[in-house]
Amino acid sequence: MAMMQKTEILIIGAGVIGICAAYYLTEKGYKVTVVDKGEVCSGCSYGNVGVAVPSICGTLASPGIISKSLKWLLDPESPFYIKPRFNRDLIGWLWEFQRACNEPQMRRGLSILHEFNTASVELFKDLAAQEKMDFGFVQKGLLVVFKSLPGFKEGVQEAELRQKIGIEAEIIRGSELRSFAPHLRSGLAGGIYYRRDAHLDPYKFVRRLAEKTRKKGAQILTSTEVIGFEIFGKAIKTVETTRGDFTADEVVLAAGAWSSEMSRYLGLKLPIQAAKGYSITYRLPENYLEMPVSLSETKVFITPLADTLRLGGTLELAGMDLSINKRRVNAILKTVPEYIDINIENLKLIEIWRGLRPCTPDGLPFLGRCRAINNFIVAAGHAMEGISLGPVTGQLVAQVIGNEKPSVDLSLMSIERFN
Ligand SMILES: Cc1cc2nc3c(=O)[nH]c(=O)nc-3n(C[C@H](O)[C@H](O)[C@H](O)COP(=O)(O)OP(=O)(O)OC[C@H]3O[C@@H](n4cnc5c(N)ncnc54)[C@H](O)[C@@H]3O)c2cc1C
């Protein structure tokens, strides 16, 4: 047997969540080791559309979603799809999901995620300033545009709900849209401009933060896959990996969509379903807009990232399957010219990508210490907002491990809430 490797804190997963946790823990003086089966930022954190969303945050579970998704399920090009299959975890997840689709829970989720995301945006600014890190962070707001009048009306209602909790939202009539953003097609029903939202290059952010964290003393091991655990009493004694065994005082699970599989090794149940999404990245056309745009009816986002333009969308519950469904990629591409005056065929393609969003049934992440296993902390399930919530999650993990009072209330994030 190889020698046991020792560390104070072992983090599983080098995506945005694992790296942010490693950064804040290292800052507090802990000896941290991060392991990832792939490279740093090779999972869902790699090719997403990079929007930080204090204003347009929220949970997928909402009162109208079930009837909408039933209609979408029959359309292979729709923004939402569930691969029909008999799978106990999926059925259990869908059951909890529909239970969470009610007005009070949606509102509560919105205000918690708003608080989390607002804190995170401030931390992005601090990181850029304190660490002199350039990751393309720009706070130029986000524009949500609507093609149809009913869509716009719904959007306005939603904006008004958000305004009630202090979110700034500017409602723009269809006739005024093009003077606001000249790249939009004429004839759109309207738009809503959320001034406080921001965007950043997710890959640059995670890679550069990982580099800083390493320089501050953390160890980051790639191609190191966790394959099991050894439990003694109420604690993890050993973490077994493809590159040898580790002992640690505390183990943090930040394995995104793989977290559910990982927790099964520990005999725990973490209901996280993978929701596949795609992005297509092109070279940025000249004089393109400086802010991200969300095409509301089709749930597609378009973000300018340095000299590239990234289009992203779809949410497919199809298990851990990473195959690329070209029909869905094309469906994203097809909708863009309906909103934006752009000829995609003339753009230079850089990359087609897919990633697995880690989704909990109620849309809030799992964040906190496990009751059954004392030295096990989970930070996973950030769904559509993992980049945005990365810094605040990292800081909270450091507070939980340091036994400090968390800066935001974590009771609704409990990892046992579905047991
Ligand atoms: C199309 C698309 C667009 C998106 N747009 C946005 C956006 O605009 N804003 C936003 O905030 N979020 C967005 N997201 C969501 C965001 O990308 C995710 O929430 C976030 O990346 C999750 O980060 P993570 O660190 O939890 O997971 P990941 O980045 O997936 O990291 C998990 C890591 O765990 C590792 N791992 C897994 N199993 C093991 C094992 N056994 N041993 C060791 N390591 C293991 C994996 O290799 C991986 O690197 C988008 C997602 C998609 C798909």
Q: Your description of this structure?
A:
The structure is a single chain. With 419 residues, the protein is an alpha/beta fold. The protein folds into two domains: 5-46 and 204-271 and 363-413, FAD/NAD(P)-binding domain, CATH 3.50.50.60; 58-101 and 137-197 and 272-359, D-Amino Acid Oxidase, subunit A, domain 2 (D-Amino Acid Oxidase, Chain A, domain 2, 2-Layer Sandwich). The protein is 32% helix and 26% strand. The strands form three sheets. Strands 4, 5, 6, 7, 13, 14, 15, 16 and 17 form a nine-stranded mixed β-sheet that branches. Strands 1, 2, 9, 10, 11, 12, 18 and 19 form an eight-stranded mixed β-sheet that branches. Strands 3-8 form a two-stranded antiparallel sheet. Helix 1 (16-27) packs parallel to helix 10 (386-401). The longest helix has 28 residues, at 103-130. The mean pLDDT is 95. Flavin-adenine dinucleotide binds at residues 12-18, 35-38, 42-45, 48-51, 225-226, 254-258, 262, 277-279, 312, 355, 357-358, 380, 382-388.
Write the SSE topology.
Layout: E1 5-12, H1 16-27, E2 32-35, E3 51-52, H2 65-73, E4 80-82, H3 88-100, H4 103-130, E5 142-146, H5 149-164, E6 170-173, H6 174-180, E7 190-194, E8 198-199, H7 202-215, E9 219-221, E10 226-232, E11 235-241, E12 244-253, H8 259-264, E13 273-283, E14 293-295, E15 300-305, E16 308-317, H9 326-339, E17 349-359, E18 366-369, E19 376-380, H10 386-401
Parallel strand pairs: 1-2, 1-12, 2-9, 4-16, 5-14, 12-19
Antiparallel strand pairs: 3-8, 5-7, 6-7, 10-11, 11-12, 13-16, 13-17, 14-15, 15-16, 18-19
